[in-house]
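Hey,
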Amino acid sequence: MPLIILFMIHKLSELTEKAKNKPSRRIAVAAAEDDAVLKSIETATKNGIIIPILIGHKTEIERMAQSIDFDLDGVEIIHNDKGADESAKIAVSLVKNGEADILMKGFISTGALLKAVLDKENGLRKGNILSHVSFFESPYYHKLLCATDVAMNIAPDLDTKVHILNNAVEACHKIGISMPKVAVATAVETVNPKMEATVHAAELKKMQWQGCLVDGPFAIDIAVDKESAAHKGIVSEVAGDCDIILMPDIEAGNIFYKALNFLGGAVSAAVVMGAAVPIVLTSRSDSETSKMLSIALAAAMD
């Protein structure tokens, strides 16, 4: 068998350095009239990670940029005064026509942006399912940890989970994790017909996967802690060393995401996968650092 060398990533700053060492990526920002988004764009631009294309009301963008000392000299602004939905269409068209490499959400609802992305004629469809992929740098874990889906798919069925898992594996491959270990998360380690997530986990484990290792059902302690796995008699290459945690539903995923960020001392970066290009789609509650790192994550993808 060929020797597989895993590229172990421990810090999100390694993704930033990876992005810096690549040619700057062009990023189309839909409805760029958002001071927090503009601040993260400024930081990423100064680091040579991106070349921004700002779509929205030019006067408002310039006013906001001035308020945060963002020098827009040399930055392309596409003026649009017809609202955020139109800005999304323009941003998507730039990507579709090869004029931008990454799409980013500005001051626009997620639904409106995704409507433009998923447009059958003019959108960026690649597969059937878009999903949110988050990477965490935690002081309590020995490498980056990916969690999915925490923001988009509410109660995924088995088929949807297959797509979500594949999107997360693709994201890992794109940043150099060649054989990610996937823990299918549930509340318990045994299959219980009354707990659909455990049944899904057992089915996912039985499937033939390429480019990843899948195991479960695992409670979170089993997924991330070898001692807990050993104490419960679980022998698995994935237990205690997972790269990806596949969440049972959006409620568990969203709670996990926010608990790590706001209580667990973690730093995160996230993208939406499943479209023709990575999409930077951050929340208003995400820190400026998280927004900047999400841009770097998208730019670092091969």
